[in-house]
User: Which sequence fits this backbone?
């Protein structure tokens, strides 16, 4: 079942198309990574989903209901890229206030607030302090809790990792996993490609108001495989000799900071050549320390698609 | 609890729980008493002040007690708006600059936020005034106890005075919503300090005009007064002065109140639109093209 169903969505600012005929569906329980360069239309899309902006054409359905302020707002938890908290308000009051604005029951809010504060390791005395007295990381935690405290079905987090150290990033990751297990759908908009790659089940890539790519992350990566291999050896290879074997299309050494003294190569085998044959050819020259297929990273896809569109 | 009352309650509690609220509330009467004492001292020492103390009645200056009450109402409105309008302006501006606005308008329409701000700040102001009134009440009570007969308490509780208080409240509330909406709009459409000054000065000028025409209208029923009685920017003072003073028929009072409240609602709706579109026009000056965004905003 789809939690979000967007059909032919367009939004224009004067002659500029911020979104142009976007079609997107996100199924319930997915962790969806929304990617795109700055100014691509991501924020406009998120604001239309949240009924902050009115679309010029097309439709947005949240769990089958047309997006409308006051109707679908309760189903969504939205944390915009630029955070906003009342610095003079107490942490617990702040969280309950935003939850009440979403129309949730006070008892439910109190229970959830307690649970999420425990997950985020917010200390007891910090819970009643004013927001301005907290560290930036803790303020970020408060912002996230205020976003999800009313148990929304669809959670939208714009750059949720900014302001977090790796430990807090890990906490956020486990929280998202937990929410997903409860049946929530999460949209993460971020430029932190490794985090998106690690957490998302699905991705969508948007540029110049158009959705260039979307679907399950594994399928997308699978469909963009090039067959490139990565091989690490204990000593330097004679690349000419390796190329002369007739099995290899190209071989080049790449920088690898993980192993001191080792050498890493990217090898493109000729069509139909098995990995075992490649390994046998290299093993003659040096000890093989590591061997794997190079899967396209999100950064590779991001650059490929956005630059491709720029060139076109 | 509706979302409007949730915002009003949060605004109110946030302010009333702050130390600065109590410091200003308690220091203000002390300062007023000190100022009164200082002027009293000057009046005994200075010849100029003695001249001002001259109580000899001047022909043509006589106004009724009710007209005086109307004038007082106009003056109170002017003071109240000046003090608390700036608070509305600052609250809206703060929310805009620290980006809470985007979270709020994903929950409620901008106009609801604006209505809530104006009501919340009005309640904060009324709380402060109630505390001061309690001080005054205690003072009056003590005076009445210590010097019986000096205060005409029965006259203060007459039907005429109570009706005047109702009219005062109606013009006061309408005027505060109208000017509060203007302050909120000013807070939403700008974030540059010099531009802020410009918008605030314009509102202050409107208020000054309203106040002075209000004084002029105490014993005047000319064409200008009649127009200003209906124009919403001046009707809070002129209306109060004229209606309480019994210088206008009831249907004119009703018409002036309807226009005032209608204008206040329209102003707050537009302030809401400015607040919502502030998200989209961050850091930009409002261009004619942006007006489309403005009018489409919720």
Assistant:
């Amino acid at each position: 079942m789809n939690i979000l169903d967007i059909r032919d969505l367009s939004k224009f600012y004067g002659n500029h198309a911020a979104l142009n005929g976007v079609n997107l569906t996100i199924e319930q329980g997915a962790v969806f990574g929304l990617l795109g360069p700055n100014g691509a239309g991501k924020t406009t899309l998120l604001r239309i989903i949240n009924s902050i902006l009115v679309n010029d054409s097309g439709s947005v359905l949240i769990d089958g209901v047309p997006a409308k302020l006051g109707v679908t707002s309760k189903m969504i938890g939205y944390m915009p890229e630029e955070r906003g908290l009342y610095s003079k308000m107490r942490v617990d009051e702040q969280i309950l206030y935003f939850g009440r604005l979403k129309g949730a029951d006070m008892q439910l809010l109190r229970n959830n607030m307690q649970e999420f504060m425990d997950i985020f390791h917010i200390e007891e005395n910090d819970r009643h302090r004013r927001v301005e007295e907290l560290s930036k990381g803790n303020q970020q935690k408060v912002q996230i809790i205020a976003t999800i405290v009313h148990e929304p079905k669809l959670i939208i987090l714009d750059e949720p990792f900014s302001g977090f150290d790796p430990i807090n990033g890990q906490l956020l990751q486990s929280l998202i996993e937990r929410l997903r297990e409860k049946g929530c759908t999460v949209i993460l908009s971020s430029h932190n490609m490794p985090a998106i790659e690690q957490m998302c089940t699905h991705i969508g890539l948007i540029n110049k108001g158009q959705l260039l790519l979307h679907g399950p992350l594994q399928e997308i990566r699978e469909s963009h495989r090039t067959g490139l291999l990565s091989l690490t050896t204990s000593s330097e290879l004679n690349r000419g000799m390796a190329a002369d074997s007739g099995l290899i299309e190209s071989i080049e050494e790449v920088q690898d900071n993980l192993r001191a003294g080792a050498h890493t190569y990217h090898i493109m085998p000729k069509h139909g050549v098995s990995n075992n044959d490649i390994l046998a050819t290299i093993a003659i020259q040096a000890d093989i320390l590591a061997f794997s297929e190079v899967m396209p990273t999100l950064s590779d896809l991001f650059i490929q698609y956005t630059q491709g569109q720029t060139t076109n | 609890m509706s979302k409007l009352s949730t915002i009003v309650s949060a605004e109110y509690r946030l302010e009333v729980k702050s130390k600065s609220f109590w410091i200003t509330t308690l220091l203000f009467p002390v300062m007023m008493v000190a100022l009164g004492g200082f002027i009293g001292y000057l009046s005994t020492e200075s010849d100029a002040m003695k001249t001002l103390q001259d109580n000899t009645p001047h022909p043509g200056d006589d106004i009724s007690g009710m007209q005086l009450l109307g004038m007082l109402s106009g003056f109170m409105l002017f003071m109240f708006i000046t003090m608390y309008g700036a608070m509305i302006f600052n609250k809206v501006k703060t929310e805009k600059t620290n980006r809470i606005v985007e979270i709020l308008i994903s929950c409620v329409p901008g106009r609801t936020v604006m209505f809530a701000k104006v009501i919340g700040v009005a309640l904060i102001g009324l709380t402060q005034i109630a505390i001061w009134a309690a001080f005054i009440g205690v003072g009056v009570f003590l005076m009445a106890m210590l010097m019986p007969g000096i205060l005409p308490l029965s006259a203060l509780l007459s039907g005429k005075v109570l009706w005047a208080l109702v009219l005062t409240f109606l013009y006061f509330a309408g005027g505060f919503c109208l000017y509060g909406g203007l302050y909120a709009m000013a807070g939403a459409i700008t974030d540059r300090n010099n531009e802020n000054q410009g918008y605030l000065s314009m509102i202050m000028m409107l208020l000054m005009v309203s106040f002075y025409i209000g004084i002029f209208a105490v014993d005047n029923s000319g064409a200008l007064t009649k127009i200003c009685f209906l124009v919403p920017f001046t009707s809070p003072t002129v209306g109060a002065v004229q209606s309480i003073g019994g210088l206008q028929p009831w249907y004119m009072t009703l018409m002036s109140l309807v226009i005032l409240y209608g204008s206040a609602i329209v102003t707050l709706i537009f302030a809401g639109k400015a607040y919502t579109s502030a998200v989209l026009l961050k850091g930009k000056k409002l261009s004619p093209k942006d007006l489309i965004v403005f009018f489409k905003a919720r």
